[in-house]
C-alpha cells in the first residue's frame, strides 16, 4: 500500500438522507485532503473521490486537478471500511 495514501481521518461534510448521498472530507497522513462521495442506494458504496487543492498531489506533485485520487478510489474505500472511519450506524 502506498504510504502517501494513508487515511488519517474522515469527517462528515454533508448529507442528503432523501437522496441517500453523503459527502465526507478525508485527510491523509501527509496533510492532503479529498472529498469522498458515498451513496446508500441501493446499497452503501463509494461513488467518487475529488482531491481538494490545499496542497499538491502527493503522488504526481501537481497543484491542479489530476486523476490520481480517482484512480485510487478502491484503496480509499477499502481503508474506510477496514478502519471503520465511517461507523456502520451512519451507513444504514
Quick overview of this protein structure:
With 92 residues, this protein is α+β, with helices and mostly antiparallel strands. The protein is built from 2 helices and 4 strands, in the order ββββαα.
Written overview of the protein:
With 92 residues, the chain is of the alpha+beta class. Helix content is 15%, strand content 35%. It contains two helices and four strands, in the order ββββαα. The chain has helices at residues 68-71, 73-82, and strands spanning 7-16, 21-28, 33-39, 45-51. The chain has a four-stranded antiparallel sheet with strand order 1-2-3-4, with helices on one face. Strand 2 and strand 3 form a beta hairpin. The N and C termini lie far apart (29 Å). 13% of the residues are buried. The mean pLDDT is 91.
Q: What secondary-structure arrangement, pairings included, does this model have?
A:
Layout: E1 7-16, E2 21-28, E3 33-39, E4 45-51, H1 68-71, H2 73-82
Antiparallel strand pairs: 1-2, 2-3, 3-4
Strand content: 25-35%
How do the strands of the widest beta sheet line up side by side?
Answer: 1-2-3-4
Q: Which H/E pattern describes the elements? A: EEEEHH
Class by alpha and beta content: alpha+beta
Morphology call: globular
Amino acid at each position: 500500500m502506498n504510504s502517501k495514501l494513508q487515511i488519517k481521518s474522515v469527517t462528515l461534510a454533508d448529507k442528503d438522507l432523501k437522496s441517500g448521498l453523503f459527502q465526507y472530507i478525508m485527510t491523509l497522513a501527509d496533510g492532503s485532503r479529498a472529498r469522498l462521495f458515498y451513496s446508500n442506494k441501493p446499497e452503501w458504496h463509494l461513488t467518487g473521490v475529488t482531491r481538494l487543492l490545499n496542497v499538491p498531489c502527493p503522488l504526481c506533485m501537481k497543484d491542479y486537478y489530476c486523476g490520481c485520487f480517482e484512480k485510487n478510489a478502491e484503496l480509499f474505500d477499502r481503508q474506510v471500511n477496514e478502519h471503520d472511519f465511517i461507523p456502520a450506524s451512519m451507513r444504514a
